[in-house]
Amino acid sequence: AINMVEAGANEVSEEIVVEALARAHERIKQIVEMIEELVAKVGKPNMEYPRVGTPAEIKQAVTEVAYDRINQAFREADKPQRDIQLDAVKADVQRQLQERFPDHGGDVSAAFEAVLKMAVRRAILDEGLRPDGRRLEEIRPIWCEVGVLPRAHGSAVFTRGQTQALSVATLGT
User: Where does the Exoribonuclease phosphorolytic domain lie (predicted)?
Assistant: First the structure.
């Protein structure tokens, strides 16, 4: 299935573009069939491997020690400040659990990230809040400007929240 198409096809009608995509999709199906046949003839079986994950005991310990502080810290609206707060909580958790899990620093770190993800997910799904405190239907203001660099053939600046992008195009001769 086609997920998304983004194009500036101003020279042809939308119907022609849709027809071209439908034809391309049919050809892609044929190519996929050939690949599957090739795999069936010469492919190797998938290799089994043991699943390695964070021990449940460590994840539970991190949850007990840090969930409330993580839940509070990630709601900071200012992203740099939020990152500072989360880094401080993470360092504190690693210090607190170092003695209990001396050879599992990586697991403690992975558990911290999993607990952070769980807290963010709960806030989004249960409370309708994003990490910076915005409601789901709120969007940050966007600022765009084109032609910002006089000597380039094309340039644009885009800013939304903490994201900034400068695009520049120079054509060769």
Answer: 138-171
